[in-house]
Design brief:
The protein is an alpha+beta fold and about 70 residues long. The chain has one domain: 2-Layer Sandwich (Double Stranded RNA Binding Domain), CATH 3.30.160.250. It is built from one helix and three strands, in the order βββα. The chain has a three-stranded antiparallel beta sheet, with helices on one face. The protein is globular and about 35 Å long.
Amino acid sequence: MVKYEIITWWSKEDNCYLAEVPELSGCMADGETLGELMENVQVIIQEWIERAKELGWEIPEPKGRLMYA
């Protein structure tokens, strides 16, 4: 399990839970339940990291809780 901050919310428009990983640009997932969302976001994080390695991108170290205004 990768330990990046994950921001989750319910999307009435999409009728599902959504998650964003702010430290990994564009890394998002969805799920019908919170359990499914957490499984999906872990898969997407791994895929994001694998693709970033293929492209030679720097992989950010997880910083833990981020502060947003």
